[in-house]
Input
Amino acid sequence: MPAVLGSYSPPVLCPYCNADNDKVIDSRTSDGGKVTRRRRECLACTRRFTTYERVEQTAKLMVIKRDGRRVPFDRENIVRGVSSASGKRKIPEDIKQKIADEIEEELHKQFDREVESQVIGEKLMGRLRDIDEVAWIRFASEYYKFKSVDELKKQLELLDGKVRDVKDQQRLFS
Output
């Protein structure tokens, strides 16, 4: 088992010949240090391939739904929420994925085992409000379950009166 670049790397099956004898040619971290990309060369057939190592979340975060049920956290629910709220709005797919990544990272930092679904909804609404107000109001109408147009108008007035933060600007007041 070769150790290259000062780190132990267990052999991986070659995708071409299924041999388990390879050497690591290059290792790089990406995604803020969460992923290690390794370029490998099979010693049997000399072909090169790439592997990725990710840290797996050991403790599953559970979401407490409004009705009290507990379900495992699934970031795809966030992506689906953004997609349905945005509808045919021109929100790029990478932005939707970035929102899901950021919220997932925040949740794992702030909560050990359980998080209420309302917390996730509030985080998502905050992001949507900054990206696309129409998508925000679509999501908010489902989230708040408006019973009348007056309730919707109140939320729109709050949105209209709110000063928007400039991206990456440090907040002066909390």
